Structure formats: C-alpha cells, structure tokens
Structure of chitin synthase:
Amino acid sequence: MKQQQRHEFRPSWDLCREVPYIQDEQMPKKRVQFLKWFSCAIVGMLVFVLALLSKTSFLLLITFGNNQTKIICSEQKPTALLGIGFVLVGSSVLLLLKSTWKFIFKSATMPSKKTLFWVLCVEFLVALGAAVLTIVAMPHFDIVTNVMILNSVSILSSVFQVVAECLAKERKRLIMLPVCSIFLIVTGYVLFAISYLAFESSLAINISVGLAIVGTIFVSVNWWENYSTLFAVSFLEDISRDIAQSRNVVCIISSLVRILVTSAVVGAYVPLSGQEWKLVKLVFETVVVSLVAIQIASSALCRWFVVVACKMHALRRSFVLPMYLASITVLAVFLVPTTVRLPKSNQTSTCFDNFQPKSSDEWLLLMLTDAIRTLNTRDIVVHKKTGGLVCLGCSALSWWLGLMLSTVYIWYLKIHRIERTQDLFVRRMYEGAFLEQSMLLNTRFEIRKRIKEKKCAKETIRVFLCATMWHETYDEMMKIIISMFRLDKYRPKTKEQHDVEFEFHIYFDDAFKDVDNGRHANEYAEILVDVIKEVYTIFSEEDPCTFKQKAALPRQKIINTPYGGRLEYTLPKGNLMMVHLKDKTLIRHKKRWSQIMYLYYILGWSLNRQYFKKLKAGEELDSLKENLKKDKENTYILALDGDTDFQPSAVMLLIDRLKLYPEVGAACGRIHPTGTGPMVWYQKFEYAVGHWLQKTAEHVFGCVLCSPGCFSLFRGAALMDNNVMKRYTTKASEASHYVQYDQGEDRWLCTLLLQQGWRVEYNAASDAYTNAPQDFKEFYNQRRRWGPSTMANTIDLLGSGGLTSQRNSSISKLYILYQIISMAASILGPATICLMISGSFVFILNMDENIALALAIVPPIVYLILCFKLKSDTQIKIAAIMSILYAFLMAGTILSIIGDLVKQKTFLTPSGLFLIGMVVLYIITAALHPQEFSLVIYGLLYFLCIPSGYLLLVIYSIVNLNNVTWGTRETGSQAKTTTVDTIKKKVMNATCCKCPCLESEDLSEKTLPAETITKTEKPHISLETQRDHEFQLSPHQTWIEHLQMKSYEFPLDESALPLDEIDFWRELQKKYLEPLKENKEQQEKVADDLRELRNKVTFAFFFCNALWLVATFFLQAIGDSISIKIPKIYPNGTYDPTEVFSLDPIALMFLLSFTVLLLMQFVAMLYHRIYTLIHFVAYADTEIKSYRKQSHQSHQILDSNHQPETYGPDTALCFQNPSARSITSV
C-alpha cells in the first residue's frame, strides 16, 4: 500500500520541477488589436479622401461643360467634354491593359458566340448610357443634381434584388428594403423632372432630363451579372459560367466597346451641339489635364483600397460608410463657399485667355465659385421658388437613400478570413464616372438563406502533420512534440464539425538496434518516447490550480508492423498521433522514402480505400468520383522536420492560402534558423534576405521554386496528380538522379508540382523555426547538398520552360527569363567575387588592376586544385582558414571605400553608390519587417563572409558533387547510456503525480504493475491471427516489452494492425520501399558516373567564370579607349569635368543588371508586404473573436470543475506561475 501511495503522490518536500518552456500563441495582445484598428482606420480614411478627390474632380469637369460657368470660355467647352470622355474610358483602358497581360501570359479561353453577342449588347447599352448621361445631359444641370443623380444608377439592381428574393422566398422584411429603394429612386426621378420641367422648361432642358433618366437606367444594366445566377434562368446561368471561364477575353472586348462608343458619342455630340474641335487648345494642357489625371489616379487607388478594406474585414467602417458619406461630403464642399466672391480685379475676365490664377488657392476658389454658379443661376434659386427648391432637395435625398437601401446587404455580408477579389466583386474594374456607386453595386449579392446553407454545409479540411526524424537531440524533439501538442490544444477533436481537423504522424528512420535476443528501439527512439510522455503530462494538466489528485496518464497503443513498429497516442484533446518506427532492414530508410511512405499511407491507403469500399458496396460511381475529388482537394499534408518549432497560427495561415486558391498545390512559411554562434548569425541574415527579397519576388512574379521540407503545406490533389507522387518514387539510377532526387528532395517535389501546373506560394506571416548548422563543417556539408540540387532542379524547370508555361498559368515566359538571369548570376558568382576581391586589392594596396585581378584568381584556383586531391574534411579546414583571411580583406575593403569617399569628397562614385545603395535597401527592407529588424546587425558578418559563401563554398560544392551522402547528423555521436539515463531521470523528476523521486530503474521495473503489459486486441482480429498472417517477424517481441518497461508510467498496450493494412504495407514495401541491396559493381559504376558528372559540371561551370574573367582582363588591358567615362559629381550637384571615373562595359552591364534585379525584388517585396499585412489583420480579427469565445467556454468549464476535495498531508498542491507559460508545483 505504501509503495502504491508513493506512485500516486510526490512527497511534499520534493515538489520543484524542471519543465520545458512552452510559449503559447501570442494572439490576444493589445498591439495586435491596435495594429488592426490602426490599419483599418488608415485604409478607411484613404478610401474616403480618394473618393472625394475622384468625385470632386469629375464634377468639376462636368461643371466646365455647363454654359453658365466662366472658368472655360464657351468656345472652348469641347475641351471639358473631351476631359469627361477620358474619365469615362480611363478605367476601360486600365482593364484592357490588365486583361491583355493575363490573356498573353495566363488564360486565353474564348467565349461562345452567344456570350459574345450578349456582352456586346450589354456593354453597348452601358457605354451609351454613361456617355449620354455625363457628356450630353449633366452639363445642363446644377451641381446639386449632378452630385446626386449618379446615385440613381442603382434602380435595376434594386429590381433584380426584389425578383431574386421573391424567387428564393426570402422574408418580407428583407424584400421591403429593395422595394423601398425602387420607390425612392422613382420618386427622385419624378421630383427631378418636376424641378426642371415645371419651373424652368425649355427644349434643351426637356431633352436633357429625358436623356438623363434613360442614361441612368442604361447604366444600371451594368451589374446584371451580380444577379444572373439567382433567377434560375438557364440562359443567364450559361452566359455567366462562360464569362467566368473566358474573363480575360470578355474584359478585352468590353473595354474596346466602351472606348469606341464613348469616342463616338464625344465625337458626334460636339459638332451636333454647334461647337468645333479646332478651338480645343492651351486650356486642355492645364486645368482639364490635371483634373483628368487626378480623377483617374484617385479612382484607381480608391478601388484598390476598397479591396484592401474588404480583405481586412473592415467592410463597414472602411468601405461602406466612406462610400455613403462621399456624396454628402462632396455636396457640402460645393455648397459651403456659396458666399465667397472673386476679387474685383479678377471678375472682369471671362475665361483663362485673359486671366490666369497665381496660386493653387486661387485656382480652388475659382473652380468652387464656378461650380456653385450652376445652382445660383437657376430660376428656382434666383426667385426663391420654394416648391422647386423642395423638389430639388427631396430628389437628391431620395436618390441617396435609394442607393443606401439597395446596397444595405453589404452591411451584413459575411466574408471569409481570406477572400479573392473575384469572390468579393463581380466585375474586375470600377466605373470612372460612378466610382462609389460602381464599387457598392459591384459587391457580390447573396441571398441570406443561401448564406446560412453554405455556413451549415461548410467542408472540413483534414491536415496530416508528417514529421521525419532520425538523429535529433532531446531539445530538438521537444520542439516538434510541443508544437504538435499546441495544435492539438488549439483544435480539439470533438463530435461537432470543425473547419480543420488534425492528425499527427512521426516517421522515425533507423529506430532499431540489434541486441542479443532480438531487436530493441535505439537510444533516439527511447528519447522520443520520454519526450512524448513529458509533454503529454504537461498538456494534460488542464486545471493545475485546483486542489485535486492528478489523473493517471491514459493507456496508449504499441503495435508491431511490417516496417518496424508503431506507437499510437490519443492526445489530451482527442487528436491522434502515430509514431512510425522504421527498421532499415525491413523498409527503405532516408527522408525521401519516409515521405513516400506517408504519402501512400495517407493519400493512397487512408483516403482512397474508403471510396473503393463504397464502390464495392454499390454506391453510385459519379457521386463517389465527386466526393473523392473534394476529399483530395480538402486533404492537406504538412511536411515537417524533426526539429521544427511553430505556432498554430503559422499552420492556419498556410491553410488559408490553400483554401482560398484551388490552383495552389503547396505553400511555405518564413523559416527562421535557430542556434548560437557565428555560423548561425550568418544564416539568420542569409535566410532573411532570401525570404525578404528572393522568395517574395518568386511569389509575386511567378511561383516559389522551393517549398522547404521543414515546414510546407501540400494539397493532396496536387500530390496525387499525374507525374508527381508516382514519379517521386523513382529510384535514382543515373548520376544526375542522385543529385536532383536525393540531395534536395523538397525542391524536386516542387519542380514536379510546377511542371504539372500547380502553384507554389509563400506566406511571410507563417513563422517556423528550425535548427541551423552551428559549425563550419556541418554548414558546408549541408550546402554541398543544396547547391547542386538547386542548380539541377532549376535547369530541369528552365529546360521544360515552354511546356511548363503552357501548363502553369502562374509561370510566364517573362518569369522564365527572370529565372534565367538569376541562374546566370548564380553561375557567374565566383567570377564576380574574384572581381570584387580584385577591386579590394586596388583599393587597399593601390596596385594595377590587371595584377590585382591575377592575384585575386590565384587562391581560388589553388583551392580548386586542392579540392580534387584532398579529403572532404581537409577541404573544409582549408576553406575555413581562407574564409578568415578573406573576411579581413572584406573589412579592409569597407574601410577603404569609406576612406575613398572622404578623399573624393563625394559619395557619387560607382563603388560608393553601390555600397550605400545596398545598405539603404537592406535597412529599408528590414524596417518593413519590424519584428525581424534586429537581423540587420548580422548584415556586417554576412558581408565579411561573402567570399566564403559565394566563392569557396561554390567550389567545394561543385568539386564534391559526386559525394551524395547526407552530410549532416551522419557523424553525430550516438547517445551514450549515461546521457540517456540522465535524461530519463530528468523526465521522471518532471512528472508531478505518480513516480517516486529518484527511484532507480531496477526498482521501477520491479514495482511495475502487471496490468501495464496487458495486451488489448482489436475486436475484429486477434494478435495470434496477425502473427500467423505476417511473415515470421520474431518469435519474441523484445522491442515491445522493452519499450513497455521503459514507459511504465505511460502504459503502452500491445495492439494489432488490421489484415488489409498489413497487406498494404507489404505491397508498398515490395513495390517502392524494399531496402536497397548492396551491389558493389553497381556502386562502383554509380561512383564512376558521379565522378564523370562532377568533372563535366566543374568544367562547364568554371569555364563560364573563366570567360567572364578573361573578358574583363582584356577590357582592362585595352584601357581607356573602350571604358565608359563617368564624370565626378559632388553632392551639391556640381561636377568636375577634369576628373572622371572609368568603368569597362562588362562591369557596367553587370552592375546595372544586378541593380535592376534588386529593384525588381524590392518592388515585389513591397507588394507582398501589403498583402501579408492584409492577411495577418484578417486572421487576427477572426482569431481574436474565436479566442474570446473559447476563453468564455473554458471559464465555464473551470467554474463547473471547482469541487471541494480532501487530500492527505503529503499531497502535492499545484499553482500556475504567472510569470511563465509553464506549470509549477508547490
């Protein structure tokens, strides 16, 4: 009894624990909420201001066309009409350019004749209505009417809403809103007609009123597509479907129709109205051009910020509200200065031929006064006719309210965490003359019932986290296991349907060792079991502050399998975790084969098998195909390394990318190297630059070429596509295969996805942390694998560039060209470094350029020769010594350049501009990544190590290309028994409830209860049956009993696999994963082939670099006759013609190419940062609400769990340390 008591409670005198630091999600923080609100406020203000600029500039152009205004003489009124025409076609020109680009480089699907005819008719009506309304009719009206009549274009949208909601049998109160909108807009038409026809009727006014009403109705046809699928009319549904498939061609046609119709109306109206085009002159080059430019630019920017507001979930405060207030504010802007008059000296002039304002304030005053003159000259204002004024005001109010009621559905629109623009807005572009109306009416309309049905029928995403392990340390294992348990806590498995479900898999390579009586799990596998036990104990303590006994850890499963063994854990929140222990004598080992193992187990066995069973049961084939297709698309695999550390938010952000874009086959996050020491510091900055500039440029301009295997999310449908998963199983048989397939398996998998047409993306907000090599040798060996593999896969992709660009809409011919230039820059990297070192000699030692170049080439050539003769370890030692010497040289170069700038008294020299430009660019880039800004500190170390990383490392990688060993962890020392015992004691001490402190292992084994080794059976198959069915694995399962004894505090009950799963593993092993047999002749042949490949690649690689250096040498030898002279320019702008800087053409070309490449990457980074911020704000908004809801539920559970209990005197009580995220016992 005493012994049992000691197992249940720790003694009260030994209560302190050593537990790992578990950092929870940094979600409900005030700064995140502040960032969200600040971003939304800025976007909302920009939307409002830009809408004001757009509407005001357009209305001023309309005002200039009014005969009552004086700012433009009556003879020059065609100038204003031409400006209005440019505004109308501005958005069409932008749409034409965008669609033409997509047509050339992406989709070029042609519409049907029926669709083409429909589009031509609709676009003709809309273009004609807009041109007639704005060019012919509106110049005859006052400013109040012009501000508000644009709101009446919502008339047909309201009608369509009523019809759609009646067909859907929506609630009456919802149908009444568009009905009221129709009533108000029609009332506005009537009052508008009365205010003109009844009080100041004339032929021109009567025609203008009629044309205005007809024009607004024609324009309102523009948004028919928003309601076409709601009418249950097959004709409209077919056309909408065809338009969606051929959107680029349809947009090109519609843009051309708009431009032609608008041009025809402008061209015909001017002579018909008795005006002449020849009078269009100087004024067109001043005020009208400025207003047109302001209107087009502000409209385009406003539309973009509206999209941003919607994607940031700031729909109401940053989009709808600013748009509603735009008309009212513009009206106020025009009506406020009604009492302002021009100075007497200026009022004698009638137009700008005689008077030119001297300042911008005078310009603004004159234009506002001219605009209000259209109202002050009306008869109802001059004679103060109350009826006319009432009609005018009520018509304006009716139109404004009508627009609000017709678009009130946007106020309640449900937006997913991340949305595509095409899912938010029906048409691609805005309407130049109707900016706020077009943006509001273009927002996708949905029936409320259907929104609820969609919400109830949401599909569940299944994510399988698959980590590959080998010789990871205790700390590295702790990171990945804690990350998995975090995710289990984040999304518990319940009976209710969730948006995401998780399942965890760990594939442990070479997990067994031979012992006298069979096989045991090796030291690394034992450490993993101990780590899981420790983390399980911590995460299972849901309420450490309550005074209650700690529950025993639940029993888990241990299974013998054809490939080795398996541990099955049910995590504290219900999710399943499997640890697959691989025996290299039974199944092929190494990372790629572990990946093939889980790909076929999850996608081939678990996913497909259930549908084949349903087919045999007689279910309908078509429905099975459709459901299987959906399951493939909604099944994701998160590839992980055994030392990856991540938060749940990182996974969810990647899931968002795949959920939103069905063409995305893979997505990766921002990888942060961890560790200490100079090598890690160098890699921190290297990784930062690679992600900040290179990966963002790949994402924006085309596709990411490599989604790293340490943290990448893959879509099941993409992996199961033709020529992907099946080809990934190819066993290396040629020398090039060993380099491309096995040295960088993650890059090869991405190459296969890209060639098959799938997109690979990068999400900068999804952070993951992985251990980086901390010593020089391990770093060089790692990059020895990565360098040749990267080159091989890039050449493979570029070689199939034509076919890939046809299959993959994200990869254009221009992107292929970009990659060719980048590849050329990488190949010529060593020669470029030699030239830089040569420049360093010239700067520091003041020697002749040719001698300096020759001196710079000698050390790399010597190192190249030595690499052919010496062993790998010796090569690395020599590289380390040379790296230190080169670092001193680079430090001297920096100081020499700075000294030269001081000596020359100007920084406008080629070297000065290059150095300063690079520093400024990296600082700005780092500033745009505020959480990573501290990494710029490592930039100096990165600069000092440039010769090592881009010259010596390249030579080492190319010369050792025939070495296809893994290079990292292979020579790591085996875990010593004493080390393992120490770790075990640490784990035992960390367990707070059951084990007696510092008990010996022998005592533990003696006191092990008999129940812990009880074998449970599957109800449908016995262990004996399984053993009879299997090939005779072993008469005595020593490894199972061994692990059961080691994990006595966390009981492992022996279980069995189903027969069909055993058959699956057998067939998979036989076909793809049979251990590779050693064949000395074959190995010698492969080694010879690899050496031959190494020699060819080395020759080609360094021949290109030699050509570059020889060309530079001869250009320098020729001298000034062909060099480009650059005058010496001082910071104050003056220059000295007697002093010049000389650059040879090749150096200038390379410098310009490198600068252009960097600037392109910088622009892409800016674009990517904006959309990363949008995604992060949207994620924060949804997750904070989810967190609050979850916290409220957990508080209720905690309150219900606080039941009084009594304890013995030695019972351990627990409290939670408020200063840390770990649980402490007292």
User: Anything to note?
Assistant: Residues 669 and 766 are 5 Å apart (CA to CA). Confidence is low (pLDDT under 50) at residues 1-8, 342-350, 971-1036, 1194-1226. The chain is about 60% helix and 10% strand.
